Amino acid sequence: MRRLPRIIPVVLAAALAALVYAVASGVAVATPVNAKGLPDLRERVRVAAQGYDVTDIADYHRRANQYMGECMQSAGFQYVAHTPPTDPRLSLGLTEAQFTQRYGFGISTLIDHPASGQRTDPNLAVEALLDPARQRAYAKARGACEQRRDDAVGDPPGVMRGPAAEGAELTRVSDQANADPRIAAAKDEYARCMTGKGFTVRSGEDLSGPIHLQVEPYRQAFDTLVAEYTASGRDVAVLRVADVLDEGQLARLRHIQQAELQGAAADGACGRWLYPVAQVVHREYLDRYLAGKE
């Protein structure tokens, strides 16, 4: 069964900047807690530095929905179980090589992918049916239940939330690893390989970042259509990105998709110079941090 790493060095710093760590908390563990009631950061990272798969995600949402349903019912409100879409890299059941060949990085190629899960939270429709006073009470009750759910169930696989100071601490560890001369040398080899394939980049992020920016307007347009269908009770599973883009936009998107596939293929071939080294180096720095040997 395909598993994703809970710590991905290449994207760790960006995730931490958003104060949502690119790791997963797993289930609650009996560990010392800090003043905010959270387990010690090193222990949480140690637990998080494992893989997770679709069964972990399904188990989390089963427990989270059960908790929310009971909590909201006790507050006098209805709660509809909600399972957000699963990362296609997991739900499609493909190997990394197969995924790259078919979908590249999965950015422009999967905008309308009918992922398992619900694109829109059905509880938004439940709340919309209430009068203003009940909506305020509903929002307050839901916020309280979500906080208690997080304390009882933990964060979903792939996410570990915490105070800004913790984000800064883990960012520092990641930055130290990225400054290691072994990674600089590996990036040089990667860049030479990519240049030979027609790309002037030093990491996969240099390829994927611009693609994200290019497709964001198309993604937003598609998400808006999904929201409209959801609000009117229509089936969003039938929607495709072609339903919302004109011919010129579709042609541009196809061009972006082709470029993504080519870039991802080159990254897959040249990544042997960079990514194994990055994994080893980041693991060394993380292990040193976890052992308190900084």
Inertia-based shape: flat
Strand order of the largest sheet: 1-3
Radius of gyration (CA) equals: 21 Å
* Structural class determined from secondary elements: mainly alpha
Major sheet size, sense and barrel closure: 2 strands, antiparallel
Could you give the count of β-strands? 4
SSE order, one letter for each helix or strand: EHEHEHHHHHEHHHHH
Write the layout of secondary structure elements.
Layout: E1 4-5, H1 9-17, E2 20-21, H2 41-48, E3 51-52, H3 54-74, H4 88-91, H5 96-103, H6 123-128, H7 132-153, E4 160-161, H8 164-178, H9 181-196, H10 204-231, H11 247-270, H12 275-290
Antiparallel strand pairs: 1-3, 2-4
Helix pairs in contact: 1-8, 3-7, 5-11, 8-12, 9-11, 10-11
Signal peptide: 1-30
Keywords: Signal
